[in-house]
Amino acid sequence: MYITFQEYEYGGYEALEEAVFEKHELEVRTFLDYYTVNKAELIVDTFNLKRCMGLLIELYHERENSLKDLREGLQRSRFGIKREKVLDHDVSFDTLNENSIKELEQTFNKRRLAIIRENLLTTGVLNRAV
User: Fold this and answer.
1) What's the number of domains the chain is made of?
2) Which residues of 53-80 are buried (b: 16+ CB within 10 A; e: fewer)?
3) Residue 129 placed within a domain
4) Is 128 inside any structural domain?
5) Which among 118, 116, 129, 121 is positioned nearest to 29, based on CA atoms?
6) What are the mean pLDDT values of the chain's consecutive 10-residue runs (130 residues total)?
């Protein structure tokens, strides 16, 4: 574990329940271990590592909530009102599509790699193309 729940809480990151933190911490740690080939634990000055972990945990939580909201929106647009016209106003609710999920994932991946680059590039532990 590269960051504890207490360090996360006191680091000024988004407030999460401990169970949610543990879930995302494991996902982030696994991801970082992949890109550092398990060398993240060798970092002597852990400030950047802890900052990277905190930012990525926030990002993973944001992604999870965004995907949930997007899927609920897609569900509503498929089975609910898609278009409504009142007098001279025409409103379309069918703006979400399956590509929205792909776009969200691409944005998430770009932000995730940017956080890693910003925080760990100078540590010398990144062994994969980031």
Assistant:
1) 1
2) bbbbbbbbbebeebeeeeeeeeeebeee
3) no
4) no
5) 116
6) 94 92 96 90 90 97 91 66 68 63 92 94 79
| The pLDDT value given to residue 101 | 82
Q: Which two three-digit tokens encode residue 53?
A: 């972990």
pLDDT in tens, 67-96: 888 877 766 655 555 666 777 777 665 555
Calpha distance 37→57 (Å, rounded): 20
Q: What is the domain range of residue 83? A: 5-123
Task: Give how far Cα 49 sits from Cα of 41, 61, 69, 100, Å.
Answer: 9, 18, 30, 31
